[in-house]
Amino acid sequence: MELNEQQIQRRQALDKLRALDINPYPADVYAKDFNSVEISKQFDDSPEKFAEISFAGRIMRRRIMGKASFAELQDEQGTIQAYFNRDELCPEEDKTMYNEVFKKILDIGDIIGVKGNVFRTQTGELSINVKKLTVLSKSLNPLPMPKEVDGKVYDAFTDPEQRYRKRYVDLIVNPQVRQTFIKRTKAVASMRNFLNTKGYMEVETPILQAIPGGAAARPFITHHNALDIPLYLRIANELYLKRLIVGGFEGVFEFAKDFRNEGMDRTHNPEFTQMELYVAYKDYMWMMDMTEQLLRQIAIDVNNTSEVVFGDHTIDFGKPFERLTIFGAIEKHTGVDCSEMSEEELRKTAKEMGADVDENMGSGKLIDEIFGEKVEHLLIQPTFIMDYPISMSPLTKKHRDNPELTERFELIINGKEIANCYSELNDPIDQRERFEEQAKLMERGDDEAMFVDEDFLTALEYGMPPTSGIGIGIDRLVMLLTNNTSIQEVLFFPQMRPEKKVKAVELTTEEKAVKEVLEANGDSLEISDLKSRIEMSGKKWDTALKGLAKHGITQVGKVNDVVTVSLK
């Protein structure tokens, strides 16, 4: 591993600590009495509590001023200033801990423990007067710290790709990012509490499945060596949860990690989280009412209001959600009635509307494409889209008033699907026929069509009560609640393309000499001037210049007969 100058210096500092018999990575417990927020909120009311405290955090800034210095320490909650007085930190003759360790060896990014008393400086700044210093972790990589000059911020760590790849750095230097994930935790806790209060049971179901069922999606496949069988990462947990309803549970839910081997964009990650809930003796109309209550409560618990600002829109979870059939929504926004169209008519209509279609798509997929192309993005306020055709919903009960439709809804908010709900199909014969239709689509080349799950069919044959089930996408819900347009912002570690490795270039002595002269002179010189500054034979000079150009390090330019060599 090639180290830069700062990394080398920090490793030298590490050696100096060890030479002073200071362990840079001690194993002992370091007890924190208070966090930074507790100190700031409680000190003025109860200063006596802070006469002697222990605190730990990461050094984010330092001001060295002779016998007294300041440092800004960051913990999980925020920051607090630490005051280091040489004679208070080192009351004996040996001043090494201040003169050497704090002033010369420690760096921004190091984690330290301090003990002392809390006070306010003459300027009113809350500070810890440090009486004892403990090194807890030496940082070997410098932090990308932003600099502010004349009100402008430079070198901020804002590049999204780098932030997602190095989330640990992002959380250190952009602590406001933590709020997104705190809100995510609050949203999940609110949902869990709501469902627990209803008396439903949280369960766990297999992630590795012999048959990937419960959704129309392309699965990830792996192989189990001991059993010598293919296995799939689950695309949904629906079929297992309904097996539990067959088994006698009347309300079960799971926060599930699901995996779909599909495209990645600002709203899709191959690994995502959804909560699925199944309640016996209920239908999709009941679930609509319950979903409104649930999301309203989550919004209040997370943001202290039922209104959520997202971009230019204010989304109101406090009002009743609009309810439209899928055909009604298409007709409302396009003027086209698709409800009686054949598959070929749907394909023609979809093409005319600019939807991306192919010959393998059945009528259900075509309707979905039309809706996605012309309607979905227009639905900003929470809207239930109901009553999908049978071909779009192979696990859903037929509509009680129209056997061509199903009792299903999708909840669309800000143009994105947030939830999907069925009055669950519990007729095993009908379910088998639906699976067989899906098998035909698979034979036609639809790689998102469902497998026939014989064990699930067997379970249904034992009898499943009328049931309503819903899946809510946690990631997309959190995007809404935190005003984030990218799913990567609400995942600690989103999936990323492999980082391209730049091959290290080994320069010759002559190439290094030319490069160093250019770097010392503004990265560019007239070729005659450059040559005059380097004692080198003509042959070596030509070889060095050609070598640097070949490596893509330099370029030669000519303006008004003046030839210059510049670093790229």
Textual characterization of the structure:
- By secondary structure, the chain is α+β, with helices and mostly antiparallel strands.
- The chain folds into 3 domains: 5-143, Beta Barrel (OB fold (Dihydrolipoamide Acetyltransferase, E2P)), CATH 2.40.50; 179-205 and 235-321 and 381-490, Bira Bifunctional Protein, Domain 2 (BirA Bifunctional Protein, domain 2), CATH 3.30.930.10; 509-567, Orthogonal Bundle (Arc Repressor Mutant, subunit A).
- The two termini are 24 Å apart.
- The relative contact order is 0.08.
Please write out the topology:
Layout: H1 5-19, H2 36-42, E1 53-65, E2 68-74, E3 79-85, H3 86-89, H4 96-105, E4 111-120, E5 126-137, E6 147-149, E7 152-154, H5 160-165, H6 167-173, H7 178-197, E8 201-202, E9 208-209, E10 221-224, E11 229-233, H8 238-246, E12 251-259, E13 271-280, H9 284-303, E14 307-310, E15 313-316, E16 322-325, H10 326-334, H11 343-352, H12 363-374, E17 383-386, E18 408-413, E19 416-423, H13 428-443, H14 454-461, E20 467-473, H15 474-482, H16 509-519, E21 524-526, H17 527-532, H18 538-550, E22 554-559, E23 562-567
Parallel strand pairs: 3-5, 8-12, 16-17
Antiparallel strand pairs: 1-2, 1-4, 2-3, 4-5, 6-7, 9-11, 10-11, 12-13, 13-20, 14-15, 17-18, 18-19, 19-20, 21-23, 22-23
Helix pairs in contact: 7-9, 7-15, 11-12, 13-14, 16-18
